[in-house]
Amino acid sequence: MSFPTKSTITRLAPSPTGALHMGNARTFLITWLLARTRGVKIIFRMEDLDHPRVKPETKQEAIDDLRWLGIDWDEGFTNDDDIKRYTQSNRTEIYKQAIDKLIKKKLIYPCICTRKEIENIRSAPHEGDYSPKYPGTCRDKFLSFEDAEKAIIEDRLPAWRFRCPNEETVFCDGFQGKQIGNPAKSNGDFIIARGKYGAGYQLAVVVDDAEMNVTEVIRGDDLLPCTHWQILLYKALDIEKKIPKYFHLPLLVGPDGKRLAKRHGDTRISIYRKRGYSPNKLIGLLAYYSGFADFGEELSINELQKRFNINKIPKHKITVKSKDENILK
Description:
- 34% of the residues lie in helices and 14% in strands.
- It is α/β, with parallel strands linked by helices.
- Helix 8 (201-211) crosses helix 9 (224-236).
């Protein structure tokens, strides 16, 4: 069985490193609305490669939460075959082939630097950086991955870093407009795998979206900077024609202006579901945060389709207040 080939395809791709919270749910809701109001096919993919942080019980929990909200999909996790094909931990051989291709093209190199070591090398931090800028310490240090393994004293593995060309990457975001970046200048060479074939998010998401023919990606704007990295990987893997259209949405944040976390209270969807709250009340609250409803409105997901207009979504971060939850009770 092959992956879908319909001209426009988007995806829901939760990561089981934690429970689905209000911020994730809003992104998935807007993804669903963008698709269903335009006849776009939706696939479901489980992004479970971050093994140390993966919480197996949250896989089914995420599915249950989405279905409780009324969010459905057309392919992926509908039968045993789909579950296998659309789960990243089952796709390691495909990522291995991509890594081997990058090795052959000499576009990646082994690195033994820790994040702490990189931060210590830098003379001063750069405000707004997506991650510490890598100074290129290991760029021409090792002849092979095995040489890098021998150089590590601690019980850890080398990583593969991508050699960023000093060039601009440009794309037009469906929500944020024209974006220009230069990863070589802003962040330097970035990690694509831990261990010889332990593909990380940046590589896996490119390989998956390309093979699954995903043409539209809707996600939080915290991931906007790494889109430039992913564009470089599309080019390096000779699949540039597969680069999807991106829509990066402003995040839901707590009163401190930072992305939602436990310190802001429990916003897990599973908690609302298990407490017997109305999914339509939560849909209404998410619609309020997105500019589609008044505070306190109760809406079904199908009713919300009639109101959806991407131009109404606020261009700025949206603050979630602890008292907002009271309307769900």
